[in-house]
Amino acid sequence: MDPQARKRYTKEFQVEALELAKALGSFAKAEQQLGLTDGLIYSWKKKYNFSFDSKTKGAQQVVAETDEVKRLRKEIEELKKTNYILKKAAAFFSQDHLK
Fold it and tell me: Residue 40: which H helix or E strand, with range?
């Protein structure tokens, strides 16, 4: 296998790995069981802002919320662009009306 080729893991796999690490109480144990490189699950923990505290949300909920935030940010940007275009159009047509 090409040493520079990076294996990609699905979001579902990442969530399950986080849940396993939470159940085992250790990143290293979960990585060893799953045959992952050192620190990979920890990087997913940071990516999804996941906490092992039993009082916090599960990995699936954290991932869903992360996706929702990304979607909402994209929607906000699209709405800002639309609003900008509408303001320019309104200004254009209001000037045309004065002539």
Answer: helix 40-48
